[in-house]
C-alpha cells in the first residue's frame, strides 16, 4: 500500500500529541512494508526531503508573506498552499493508493490531492473545535474551523477517530453515517519509554532534593487541558503532603494565566514550568515523579496518559473523553470528575499514601499497553481501514462507469429521460 500522509507537525517539529502520533504511525506502517510519504512543515534542523526511519519526509517552507500563527485561519490557508504545491511534486514519482489527512489544518491540501491522484481520502479527526470549547462555537473563527472539519469528513471516504467517545462526537457534529467511521486508538512504544535509571535519579534529586512527593502534568497549556484544576488542588495537597511539588511540561497560550493562578494561590514556588520537552526527556521526567495528572476538561484520547503509564508512573485522570477508555478506576489508574480540585486532591492522596496501590496500577496499565496499544497493532488496523477505503472507492467508481454506460432511451413510461424508473444499472 502506498500512503501519502499530510500533517501540520512531524518530528522534529512537534507541538502536541498529533505530531508524535503521525510519526509513530508512519514508521510502523513502513516497518510493515508499506511505502509512506509524509508531507509536513519544515524545520531548521531537518532536511527538506529525506528518508527517515523508512519514511520519506517532505518538509514545506512557508510562502511569503509570512503570516503569524496567531492569525490562525490566514496561516492555515497559506500553509495549505505551500503544502499542496510540495505534495503535487511528490506525485511526479509516487503513486499513492490513499491520501491520509490528519485534522482540519491540512484539509484543503488533502482535497486537492485526492482529486489529483484519483484515490480515496482517509481523515483522522484528532479533536474537534466544538469539543475544545465544551460543545460551543464561540466566534467566527471557531465556526469557520467547524465548517472545515465538516467538509474534511464529508470529502473523506473513511474517517478515523482515536476513541469511541470521539466517534460519537463526530457522528453527532457532522451527521456522518456510522459505518463510515473507524475507531483506532493511539499506540505506544513501551521500549522507548524505559528511561535510564541514573538520569531519573539525577532529575529527581534536582527537582525534589528534600525527597518531597512530585506530581507531573505534561501537555499543551490550554484551557481545555484543565491544568488550572491541578493548581487549585495544590494548596489542599500541600497541607496533606508538606513540600509536594508540581512539574509542568509543555507550552501554550494559557501559560501566563496559569502562572498567575499559581501566584494567586500562593503556590508559585511549588510549581516548576519546564516548557516543551522531547519524548526522551519526558520519559525521564515521568519516571522521576510519583504521580501523573491528566486533568483535561476535554480529551479525545489522552496520549500523555499512555506515555506516563509506559514510563512507570501511576495515573490520576479526569473522567472524560477517551481517558475513561484506557483508565479503569482502581485497575489502570484513578479518575476524578473534570474540574473538581477536591476530588483530584483525594485521588492523588490515595496514590501517595498507598505504594502497593500505586505499583499495582502501574503494572496493570503496562500490561494493557503491551496487549492492546502497540504501534504495530495500530498500524495493522489503520492499513485495514485503507484497504476498505480503496475497495469502497473502486466500487463507487465502478458504479459511476456502469451508470454512464446506460443508454438514455425512453422506457415504457419515459422515466429514463425524467430521471426516474429502473434503468437496470
Q: Can you summarize this structure?
A:
The chain is of the alpha/beta class.
**Mean pLDDT figure:** 92
Measured on Cα atoms, how large is the radius of gyration? 24 Å
Number of helical regions: 16
Low-pLDDT regions = 408-425
Compute the separation of the termini in Å: 31 Å
Characterize the largest beta sheet: strand count, sense, and whether it forms a barrel: 8 strands, mixed
Q: Which structural class is indicated by helix and strand composition?
A: alpha/beta
| Strand residues, percent | 15-25%
Helix content: 40-55%
SSE pattern, N- to C-terminal: EHEEEHEHEHHEHEHEHEHEHEHEHEHHHH
Shape call: globular
CATH topology (level 3) name of the largest domain:
Rossmann fold
Arrangement of strands in the largest sheet: 3-4-2-1-5-6-7-8
Q: Which CATH architecture of the largest domain is right?
A: 3-Layer(aba) Sandwich
Number of domains: 2
Number of strands: 14
Provide the CATH top-level class of the largest domain. Answer: Alpha Beta
CATH superfamily of the largest domain: Glycogen Phosphorylase B
Amino acid at each position: 500500500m502506498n500512503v501519502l500522509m499530510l500533517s501540520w507537525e512531524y518530528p522534529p517539529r512537534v507541538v502536541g500529541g498529533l505530531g508524535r502520533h503521525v510519526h509513530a504511525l508512519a514508521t510502523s506502517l513502513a516497518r510493515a512494508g508499506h511505502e509512506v510519504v509524509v508531507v509536513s512543515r519544515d524545520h531548521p534542523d531537518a532536511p527538506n526531503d529525506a528518508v527517515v526511519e523508512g519514511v520519506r519526509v517532505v518538509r514545506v517552507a512557508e510562502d511569503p508573506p509570512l503570516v503569524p500563527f496567531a492569525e490562525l485561519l490566514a496561516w492555515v490557508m497559506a500553509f495549505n498552499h505551500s503544502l499542496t504545491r510540495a505534495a503535487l511534486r511528490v506525485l511526479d514519482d509516487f503513486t499513492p493508493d490513499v491520501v491520509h489527512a490528519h485534522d482540519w489544518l491540512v484539509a484543503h491540501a488533502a482535497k486537492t490531492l485526492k482529486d489529483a491522484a484519483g484515490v480515496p481520502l482517509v481523515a483522522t479527526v484528532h479533536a474537534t473545535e466544538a469539543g475544545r470549547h465544551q460543545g460551543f462555537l464561540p466566534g467566527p473563527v471557531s465556526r469557520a474551523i467547524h465548517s472545515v472539519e465538516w467538509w474534511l469528513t464529508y470529502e473523506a471516504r473513511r474517517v478515523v477517530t482515536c476513541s469511541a467517545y470521539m466517534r460519537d462526537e463526530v457522528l453527532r457534529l457532522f451527521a456522518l453515517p456510522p459505518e463510515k467511521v473507524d475507531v483506532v486508538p493511539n499506540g505506544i512504544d513501551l521500549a522507548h519509554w524505559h528511561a535510564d535509571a541514573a538520569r531519573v535519579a539525577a532529575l529527581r534529586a534536582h527537582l525534589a532534593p528534600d525527597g518531597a512527593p512530585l506530581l507531573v502534568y505534561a501537555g499543551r497549556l490550554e484551557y481545555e487541558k484543565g491544568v488550572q484544576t491541578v493548581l487549585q488542588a495544590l494548596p489542599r495537597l500541600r497541607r496533606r503532603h508538606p513540600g509536594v511539588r508540581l512539574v509542568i511540561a509543555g507550552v501554550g497560550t494559557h501559560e501566563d494565566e496559569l502562572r498567575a493562578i499559581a501566584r494567586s494561590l500562593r503556590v508559585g514556588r511549588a510549581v516548576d514550568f519546564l516548557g516543551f520537552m522531547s519524548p526522551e526527556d519526558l520519559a525521564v521526567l515521568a519516571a522521576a515523579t510519583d504521580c501523573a495528572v491528566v486533568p483535561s476538561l476535554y480529551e479525545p484520547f489522552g496520549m500523555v496518559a499512555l506515555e506516563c503509564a509506559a514510563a512507570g508512573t501511576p495515573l490520576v485522570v479526569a473522567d472524560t473523553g477517551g481517558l475513561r477508555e484506557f483508565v479503569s478506576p482502581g485497575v489502570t489508574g484513578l479518575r476524578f470528575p473534570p474540574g473538581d480540585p477536591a476530588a483530584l486532591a483525594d485521588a492523588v492522596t490515595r496514590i501517595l499514601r498507598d505504594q502497593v496501590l500505586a505499583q499495582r496500577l502501574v503494572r496493570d496499565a503496562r500490561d494493557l499497553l503491551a496487549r492492546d496499544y502497540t504501534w504495530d497493532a495500530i498500524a495493522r488496523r489503520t492499513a485495514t481501514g485503507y484497504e476498505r477505503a480503496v475497495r469502497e472507492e473502486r466500487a463507487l467508481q465502478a458504479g459511476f462507469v456502469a451508470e454512464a454506460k446506460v443508454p438514455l432511451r425512453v422506457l415504457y413510461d419515459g422515466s429514463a429521460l425524467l430521471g426516474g424508473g429502473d434503468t437496470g444499472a
